[in-house]
Every structure is written in C-alpha cells, then in structure tokens.
Amino acid sequence: MIVAVAAHLYLWHRLVRATTRPGRIRRWLTALTVVLAALVPLRHDGSPLDLWNLCVTKRTHYANVPCEALPEGTTLRRRASGARCPVRIPHSLKPDKSPGYADIMTTPGRSAARRKPPHALTSGPFRRLWTAMSIHGLGDWLSLVALTAVAGTLTAGSGYRAQALAVGGVLLAKLLPAVLLGPPAAALAGRFDRRLTMAGANLAMFALVLSVPLVGTYLWTIIAVVLLELAALLWAPAKDSAVASLVPKERLTSARSLNLLAAYGTAPVAAALFVVVAVATDLGRSLSPGFTARPTDVALLVNAAIYLASAACLLTLKIPPGQASAVPVPSILRQITAGWRHLAADRPVRGLIVGMLGAVAAVGAVVSVARTHIGPGALGGGDAAYGTLLGAVFLGMAFGLSLGPRTLRELSRGRLFGLSIISVGVLLAAAALIHNLVVVVLLTGALAACAGIAWSVGLSAVDAQAGDLGRGRTLSFLQAGARAALIVAVLVAAPLAGLFGHHVVRIAPDVVYRFDGANLVLLVCGLLSVVLGIVSLRHVEGRGGAPLATDLFEALRGRKPVAHSEDDDTGGLFIAFEGGEGSGKTTQSRLLAIWLRDQGFDVVQTREPGSTKVGMRLRAILLDAAHQGLSARSEALLYSADRAEHVEKVIRPALQRGALVVTDRYIDSSLAYQGAGRALDSSEVAKLNEWATGGLLPDLTVLIDVPPSIGLTRFASPADRIEAEPLEFHERVRREFRALAAAAPDRYLVVDGTLPQEEVSRIIQDHVREILPDPVPQESEDSTGTMPAIRD
Ligand SMILES: Nc1ncnc2c1ncn2[C@@H]1O[C@H](COP(=O)(O)OP(=O)(O)OP(=O)(O)O)[C@@H](O)[C@H]1O
Ligand SMILES: Cc1cn([C@H]2C[C@H](O)[C@@H](COP(=O)(O)O)O2)c(=O)[nH]c1=O
C-alpha cells in the first residue's frame, strides 16, 4: 500500500515536471499532486496507471534486455565509437535467436510506444496480489534484520565469541532450508490451492515471528527461523503460479519486473523501518521509565503485523482456483553442477562466474559479522546503527545493480568487472581498519554498490554466453551459486570472527587499537577480493588495448580509450567482420565495401588469412586438410604471422592514407578459434596478436552470429581443415565471439546472421553510417560555405 502510494506520488510529480516550467504554477501543481495522490483510489483501473504508461514509455531504456522482451518494431539505438544509430528489432526475430542483440541503449519510436502492451499493474487483481507480495517482501527483509539483531540481543551477556556464533547460526538457519528442502517443498506446494497456500504461509509466519519475543530463547529463535523459511518455500511457487494465472501473456515481462521489485526493492525500506522502530523504541524508553520493551522485540511485533497484513490482502483477493505448477525443481547442487559444466568450459566466463560469486560472498561476510562489528565490536553502535549498516548494504547493492551496465561506458566491460571486484576488496579492507561508524556505513554502501555493478556486468556477459543453456537456466545457476557462496561465507566468517574473539593492541603507552574477529574477517575478505579481482581481470581481458590505468583515466573523463597502437594518427576507419563458418562475413564485407565506395570513400577490402604474398602461402598451409594434427601453438603462430604481414603491408598503409579498411576476420578469430577452439590460453593468444599487430584494433567489429549447425550447412565445397572440426569446436568458437562482443559492447555490432542477407546488410549499413568520417574535409567545407548558392 505504502509502495503503491509512493509510486502514484512519483508519477504525478513526473507528469507535473514534464508538463510545466519551473515557477509558482509548478509549485502549486506539485502541492496538488500530493493531495490528488492521497485521493487516488488504488483499485481504480484508470488514470494513474495510464499516466504510468505515459511517463514510462516516453523515455525507456532497454539496457541488456533480450530482444524477445522488446515490442516488435522497437527502434533501438546502439552506441559505437561514440555514435548512435537506429536498428529495428525485426518482426521475424525469434526468442531463441536473440540473446545479446539488445545489449543496447534504446528509445522506442512512436510506433513502439503505441504498440506497447498495457502495464501489468493496470489489472486490478494483479495490483492487489502485487501489493500483498510487496508487503510480504518487506516482512521477509525485516525478519532478516530483526532476527539477526535478536540473536545478538539474546546472547549479549555471553561475550563476543558467543554473539558472533549466534548471529551466524540465524543466518545459516535462514539459508539452509532452501538448499536442503527446496525440491520437496515445491512439490508439496503443488498439491494445495495457491491462494490458501499463500495466505496460510503468511499466517504461519505471523505466528512464528510473534512467538520469538514471547518465548525469548535463542534455541526457539533458531527453530522459528527454520520454520519461517519452510513457510517461505511454500509461498514462493504458489505466488509465481498466481502471478501467471492473473497476468495475460503479453504483460508477463512487466509482471516479472514488478515481482523482482517486490522481492528485492523492499530490502532498503525494511532496513529503514527497522531503524525507525529502533530509534522510536529507544526514545520511548528514555521518555517513559515504565516502557521497557527492547527495540528488537518491537521490530518483531511490527514484522508480525506486516505478515498479517499480507495475509489479509490475499484473503480478499480472487485468484482462479488451482495449484502451483508441479514442475519438478532440480536440487541446488544439480543446478550448480549442470550450469558450471555448460558455462565454465570457457575461460573468460569461468573468470566472470568466480568473480561474481566472490562479490556475493564478500557481501555475505559483511552481513554475517555486521551485528558483532557494530554491537560489542569496535564501532560501539546499537540496533539503529545495525539497521543503518544493513540499509547501506541493500541500498548500495540496488544502486550498483541498476547502474551496472551504464557505469563508465567507455571502459571495456571486462575491465569494469575486474576493477569493481578489486574496489570491493579495497573498500572492505578500509572498513575493517577504520573505527568510525559513519565512515564504515559509507564504505559499506560503496562496496555493496561495486558488488552490484560486478554482478550486473557479469550477468549480461554470462547471459550472452548461455547459448542453448538458456536465460532462465543461467539465472537459476547463478542464483543457486550465489546461495552456496553466501552459505560458505557465513560458515567461514561467523566462526572465524568468534574464534578470533576480542583483541586490543597497544600501539603506544596511551594509544590502543581494537582488532576483533569481525575486523579480521573483513580484512581477510578484502584481501581475497583484491586477489580475485586481479585474477578475474586476467581471465576476462580477452584482447590488447590501452594500459589499464590510461584506459580507466580516459573512461573517468568520459572519453574513449586511447588506442595503444603504433600509429595513433591514422585518419581512416577500420572495420572487421567476424563470425563462425558460413555466417556470411565474405558476402557482407563485400556488400559493405561496395556501398562505401558508392558514397565516394577510398575502401580497401581485405581478408585473413591470405591477403599478402606470404599470407597466401600461409593460408594454403593452414587450411590444407592434409595438415591435420598441426599443433595448436604452430597454428596460432602462423595465423599471427599472416596478421603481422597483413597489418604492415595492407591495413596500416591504407589507414595512414585515410582509407576505410574492411577486413573479413581479424584478431577475434584467433581468440575464438585458437583460444577457445584449441583451448590455448586466451590471454597469451591476445598478447601474441597485440605484438604482431602493434596493438592495432578495429574501430568497429561486426559479429555475424549464426549457430554452427546452420553455418556449416551453407557450403557446397568440401570442408577445409578447420571447417572439418567437430560441432563442439565450432560451438566453443561461437561462444567466445559472443563473449568478446559482450565484454566491449561499444566496439561491436552483433547481427543475427540467420536473417535474410538484405536485412543483415541494412542493419550493418545503418550502424556504419553513424560512424563514418565526413567525406568532405573541413577545409573544403569552409571554402564551399562562402560560395554563393546555385539556384535553378
Ligand atoms: N543471410 C544469409 N542467409 C542465407 N545464406 C547466406 C546468408 N549470407 C550468406 N549466405 C550464404 O552462405 C554461404 C557462405 O557465405 P559467406 O561465404 O559469405 O560466409 P563466410 O562467413 O564468409 O564463410 P567462411 O567461414 O568461409 O568465411 C554463401 O553461399 C552465401 O550465399
Ligand atoms: C583469421 C583466422 C582464421 N581462422 C580460421 C577460420 C576459418 O576456418 C579459416 C579461414 O577461412 P575463411 O573461409 O577465410 O573464413 O581459418 C583461424 O582459425 N584463426 C584465425 O586467426
């Protein structure tokens, strides 16, 4: 309810801002906004939510959204080399062809705005369900904060060690039931009516949360937490099924986003609520000596009331009778092993996954020692301080996740990912060593934001690699992995903090420094994160480029990375076509060269291997099927030798005279075929090629993406040595191409090569048009500008 009122307020405010100029009228309208928002009946199906649509469709960003989630005909805008160009989502695009193509900033055109399906919240029953879900989400997060705080309060007299272990125990009791009992609970939920299951789970949660302050023992707290989690396991599948039954198919995407908002967006609100309750209770205690309630007990009463409110909402809601879907849920262990086997075959993806899970574990470690660090630990705060610290974690994460792919757009995604994890580590170490509550809260918020950025950047890159594993399964793999990482973090952090206990170091006769178990855990996690970040950076750095520090400095100033090449002063434009066998590179590079020449450009169309005299001989050696068994390293060296010759004799001279160079294959082919295909160390292949080319990188790489099962069937002639490799080899190659594109979206255009040839050409031309140099030099324009206009 509160969230819904806030949403209405915000929408009115936006409308007022969008339609008026600053000044007195706007101030009056803003005041009117508040009154109107209070009067807006929440069950009304009309104006406020239409306004929602109006405001949201005006400027929508579809960053990293799979194409299938976008309305047909949406006009997308992709940045490349600082330019923007429209690309239309083709009507024929099938969901299975699309991952990665919409890794783009977009603005829907007018037609898209017209066609956009109505928002899920325009449906009254769904709005009510969503209100119940949001209230429930608030309850879940508040219970996390309040129950961990209760563990600290109940063991306050037992010393630092006992308190650290007690808080860790509550966290484990919260995490383990889903791991051990997730599949049977989902099967059980499938047997009962979903509305009753949801309402029943809420009522059970109400009773359990209420029982904790009434019983008042640590043992019962742990039992109650386990039972609470079991109720949550029944609630979740029933809720998902209810959403699916209330929302028409075309609105499911927006319903899913709202579902996420209800589940995760309520975390900072819960932390804020806990702080307000703690402060109000402390105030009440100081004002009235007869009032002796503990802040944590009052927070739990509020928490119980929240679950009751959610149950009440559900009991008055009409959901078509039915059970939750009985689709068997694989165990967390199976989800992790299957996903890892599929995704981690690829070195950069392995680096991303390890980095992402490391970031989650670091946040988990902060949460597991936060209570002890604040309470009996060096920071000396109370319940309100604990709530503030967790609030900083939640807000920071939310901020980082929403900002993620838009952070430092000029920096390669691989570098941003590694640097975010290193920043998590540095901030953690600082939070471990500084004994000032305000500074620690700020550092914690910042490190959570960096962890959020790392997670969202990693997610889009891993998603692009998912291939036939699919988006849903990739997500469940990562969620299962995150849960496992959190459990490991709690299992290690809480006992380590407890065992190390409380220590005071005397620095000078009258200067002491406290260094407790929580400080040790934070410091160790910080150092581990720095190491992990450096390793991830090495794994995901697929190719050469400017030195990291220069690149970062330029990106912070909002500028493109400086090309680390021997001829930074090239006047031309360098475009490379990449892709698997039969994807259409030769066809499209020729068509592009013809189109560019038609516009008066000096164009050099070339290819690898074999565009020089020596190169032709190398091509013959490399592709001759008689040379089966050529060692992977020799192969890599021969391709790079061909490339060195190609750059020196053909590409660089052409660029220096200001020509446009279009090459069919370049460095990415070596990274994909020799790196991923032949399983050579991709950073070594990258270094070799950086040396061979003097660091020359294309301004734009057009990746024509086609499943090998299609591309390999497009040839009439017998397969050459590399085409003859098995299908899995070509699948690895395709995944690597896509990972390279996902790691630096600004430098790539990924086109679906299964589209008709003309459509592919049009998409490429639309994109290239935006980055073309001006065919008329500035000096000529200056002089022609002064000539009298010729009229007919
Ligand atoms: N979009 C398309 N749809 C269907 N067929 C296509 C498409 N583009 C190209 N082809 C056909 O596929 C075959 C291979 O095309 P092309 O030689 O351009 O691919 P390539 O990627 O350069 O192959 P290689 O891996 O040998 O470099 C040709 O017969 C071409 O006509
Ligand atoms: C540049 C480059 C190429 N390859 C492979 C990829 C293809 O199978 C052949 C080139 O044939 P095409 O018909 O010209 O596409 O060589 C490679 O393995 N590594 C490379 O660097």
Automatic annotation (TrEMBL):
Region (Disordered): 773-792
GO biological process: dTDP biosynthetic process; dTTP biosynthetic process
UniProt keyword terms in alphabetical order: ATP-binding, Cell membrane, Kinase, Membrane, Nucleotide biosynthesis, Nucleotide-binding, Transferase, Transmembrane, Transmembrane helix, Transport
InterPro entries: MFS_trans_sf, P-loop_NTPase, Thymidylate_kin-like_dom, Thymidylate_kin_CS, Thymidylate_kinase, TM_effector
PROSITE patterns: THYMIDYLATE_KINASE
Membrane topology value: Multi-pass membrane protein
EC identifiers of the protein: 2.7.4.9
SUPFAM superfamilies: MFS general substrate transporter, P-loop containing nucleoside triphosphate hydrolases
Keyword Transmembrane helix: yes
Transmembrane annotation, as ranges: 138-160, 166-189, 258-278, 298-317, 351-372, 384-404, 416-434, 440-462, 483-505, 517-537
Reactions accelerated catalytically: dTMP + ATP = dTDP + ADP
UniProt GO cellular component terms: plasma membrane
Residues that bind ATP: 579-586
UniProt GO molecular function: ATP binding; dTMP kinase activity
Main localization of the protein described in the UniProt heading: membrane
One Pfam family this sequence matches: Thymidylate_kin
Organism superkingdom: Bacteria
Domain Thymidylate kinase-like: 577-762
Cellular compartments annotated: Cell membrane
Function: Phosphorylation of dTMP to form dTDP in both de novo and salvage pathways of dTTP synthesis.
Similarity remark: Belongs to the thymidylate kinase family.
Name this polypeptide is given: Thymidylate kinase
Organism this protein belongs to: Sinosporangium album
Lineage of source species: Bacteria, Bacillati, Actinomycetota, Actinomycetes, Streptosporangiales
